[in-house]
Amino acid sequence: MASEMMEALMALCQEKHIDQLYLIDRLEQSLAKSYAEILHLDWGAKVTIDRSTGKIYVYKLIPIDDSMDEEGNYTEFEEIDVTPKDTSRIAAQHAKAEINAIVRNSAREQIYEEFSSRIGDIITGTVLQSTPDFTIVKIREGVEAELPHFDQRRYENERNERPMGERYMHNQRIKAVIIDVRDPNSTVQPVRGEHSRPPIVISRTHPALIRRLFELEVPEIYEGTVEVMSIAREPGQRSKVAVRSLDDRLDPVGACVGPKGSRVRTVVSELRGERVDVILWDEDPAVYVGNALSPAKVTRVLIDEEKNYAGVIVPDDQLSLAIGKEGQNARLAARLTGWHIDIKSESLAADILRNVPVAPEPAEDLLSDEEPERCAYVSSDGVRCRNQARPGSRFCGVHDPEGFGEDAIEDAEDLI
């Protein structure tokens, strides 16, 4: 019986590609723990399995007094044979559990080695099962992924990677990005129910999904001629994508939108109707912020680099469009550009500027270092007046024609 069990065990190892010695060592350790509890052994048990016959031996461990180390632990034990009569039944149960655990762990290790370097890549899968907490997606035969959509009010440490309003049907094909691959050998606290959940975690809310979808639909982005600079997204509702072109002759926004909007329409269709705004990226922050508030028209943008602040002035009829429903347009623009944006209408901005006190002009310096100008009056004899000219005039107080009549000027000739 024992040899038949050993033959079946070895055959199973070959089928599942498991190392035979590794499996036997795991069985011996597992059986030792079980027999120590069953036989109530204070110092534990040791189990050995004959590699040729498959016979199981159980030994009771008794510490040797002289083997105690400095920390008070025994290092050597005397082994006493306490092998029960019926060991095959218990061994078969443990063998089944250990083989299942080894096969499951081996498969997870292979998946981790293959997909851990593909985080951020897009995958296409088929929905196998959908529960209130997560959806299982089949990537290929033997490889499954989890799309979590837990209620985070109940499970704070779990994720919600499903856009609001999306529901998935059996056998439905969906696209998603890989955001995590669970390491089966990690010492970090495992997630709840990890052994029964797929090791690959995917998302349909991550901004990388939009980037990958545009790479699939826009050859210029895939080739690197057009570059996606930034993405701001509110999953299931609206997104903004900032692009620039490395070729001056190519319009990056037009390339992403496509003929009659065909390219961006495909992306929107995959996102289940989520609105996508493609805007032009610019090195000038003022221009970039103005573009990010599209489709609203901007009158002026004031930038304060120290405070990372952008003050935006828009026409009165564009204010609600610039802010958007519940502030969505302004919020996405701020997230896209990285600037704190404050939007005001032209009339409100004019009222604010009207109430701002104007700084007084500096008083005229009467003690100027410049040489005072001489009166420009010249008498009929050709003699020029020696007096200093009045401020703001070319003449002195005697010869100023605006302050005195012509008779007074003629009478003043006698003074020269």
UniProtKB/TrEMBL annotation:
A Pfam family matched in the record: NusA_N
Key words of the record: Cytoplasm, RNA-binding, Transcription, Transcription antitermination, Transcription regulation, Transcription termination
From the record, give the transmembrane residue ranges.
Answer: none
Query: Which GO-annotated molecular functions does the record name?
Result: DNA-binding transcription factor activity; RNA binding
Task: Reply yes or no: does the keyword Nucleus apply.
Answer: no
Q: Where in the cell is it found?
A: Cytoplasm
Question: Has UniProt tagged this entry with the keyword Transcription regulation?
Answer: yes
Q: Which GO terms describe its cellular component?
A: cytosol
One of its GO biological process terms is:
DNA-templated transcription termination
What is its quaternary makeup? Monomer. Binds directly to the core enzyme of the DNA-dependent RNA polymerase and to nascent RNA.
Q: What is this protein called?
A: Transcription termination/antitermination protein NusA
Which species does the entry assign this protein to? Collinsella ihumii
Gene symbol here is nusA
